[in-house]
């Protein structure tokens, strides 16, 4: 299509130049002929030359007009095509900038989350890795996560899982590249905890609900809404003092704990092996009875 337009353009351009040349030559011949007549009436010659020019000039314009219109139309179409190409380039650049901006915002969010997690100082003897959440399981509420561990050989079942605000669960299964996390609201979750101020001990039990329960408290225990709950250190898995949540509601014998972290909005977690001794080993030594 472009080649055909170019052929038409060259054809009419050549035609216009030919017509112009012919008109100029014709005008020159007429004027020269009158000069050869060698008449004394210069005024007549001048008038005749002017009349001839006035006659030939419109004819020339009429002959050249179609070619001029074609050339103008071709220039107009070429300018439209150029504008369309520029608009396409602008749209492509705009999409690229939108994608780049979204990636930058995502990186900023990830850096902020990771920085907040690193504010927690892991004991020197402990091992830890940072893992990205790739899936969650549950019906109305998430109670299990799948995280990408990147082929780490140090992740094992039972290890502690934290986020930037405290305990969120434990490793339930560990594979070559992924691990499954049982959150603290998981029905299989059991964590020994205590009230931070009163040091009253109990057990936090998941129910596959939005919040876990606080059970196995002393009969005379006084628990208040808003009390902070931390790990007790009993059991040989969690060290003492890790934040777990706060008492959210007390309904007769049913006490609900609101997790310190929003379990439905986790993006990165920290898996920690505190290398705590097994209480049974400390009691019985290497040979258990």
Automatic annotation (TrEMBL):
It comes from the Bacteria. Gene3D superfamilies: Rod shape-determining protein MreC, domain 1 (2.40.10.340), Rod shape-determining protein MreC, domain 2 (2.40.10.350). The chain crosses the membrane at residues 21-37. GO terms for cellular component: plasma membrane. GO terms for biological process: regulation of cell shape. The keyword Zinc-finger does not apply. Pfam families: MreC. Residues 133-272 form the Rod shape-determining protein MreC beta-barrel core domain. Keywords: Cell shape, Membrane, Transmembrane, Transmembrane helix. Belongs to the MreC family. Involved in formation and maintenance of cell shape. This is Cell shape-determining protein MreC.
């Amino acid at each position: 299509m472009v080649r055909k337009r170019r052929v038409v353009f060259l054809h009419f351009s050549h035609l216009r130049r030919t017509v112009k040349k012919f008109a100029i030559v014709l005008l020159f011949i007429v004027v020269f002929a009158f000069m050869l007549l060698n008449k004394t009436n210069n005024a007549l010659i001048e008038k005749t030359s002017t009349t001839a020019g006035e006659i030939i000039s419109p004819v020339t314009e009429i002959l050249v007009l179609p070619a001029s219109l074609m050339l103008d139309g071709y220039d107009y179409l070429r300018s439209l095509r150029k504008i369309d190409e520029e608009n396409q380039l602008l749209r492509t650049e705009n999409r690229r900038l939108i994608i780049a901006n979204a990636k930058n915002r995502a990186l900023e969010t990830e850096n902020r989350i990771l920085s907040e997690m690193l504010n927690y100082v892991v004991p020197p003897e402990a091992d830890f890795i940072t893992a990205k959440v790739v899936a969650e399981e549950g019906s109305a509420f998430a109670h299990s996560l799948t995280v990408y561990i990147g082929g780490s050989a140090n992740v094992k079942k039972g290890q502690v899982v934290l986020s930037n605000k405290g305990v969120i669960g434990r490793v339930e299964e560990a594979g070559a590249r992924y691990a499954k996390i049982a959150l603290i609201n998981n029905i299989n979750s059991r964590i020994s905890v205590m009230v931070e101020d009163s040091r009253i001990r109990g057990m936090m039990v998941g129910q596959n609900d939005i919040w876990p329960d606080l059970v196995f408290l002393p009969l005379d225990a006084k628990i208040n809404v808003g009390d902070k709950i931390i790990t007790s250190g009993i059991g040989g898995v969690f060290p003492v003092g890790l934040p777990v949540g706060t008492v959210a509601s007390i309904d007769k014998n049913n006490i609900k704990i609101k997790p310190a972290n929003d379990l439905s909005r986790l993006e990165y977690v920290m898996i920690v092996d505190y290398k705590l001794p097994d209480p049974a080993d400390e009691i019985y030594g290497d040979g258990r009875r």
